[in-house]
Write a structure and sequence with these properties.
- The protein has about 120 residues and is mainly β.
- It is built from one helix and ten strands.
- A four-stranded antiparallel sheet has the order 4-10-9-6.
- Strand 2 and strand 3 form a beta hairpin.
Amino acid sequence: AARQTPPVPSQPFVLDQERMQIRYYGRLLELSRYEYGLLRLLRLASVTDRLHADDRFARDWATFDPVRRGELIGTRHDGTPVTAPDDGCIVFPNALALPDTEWFYFARPSERRLDGTA
């Protein structure tokens, strides 16, 4: 029988609160409880794709590194700066990303309350 490709999820991130897991395009992310808690308190605001193999980060970024509005995150192959759109943090930076794939996510603090109050 031919192998069928599983369907691509409609949302990149799926939060499973019961199992305390986050899936990215169906792939389970290996997160510590601390990382899981932080991601629940952040709102992924945007994704930036790597457009060219020579696009470069300004430094070695790690998930949850804070950035300030206008801070240099990287530089495009043509010299165009890639800067933080606001105060927030970098999530899932991938220095090995192929062109036209996700390079990094930008997150802001969430308005969500975890204590159940409005």
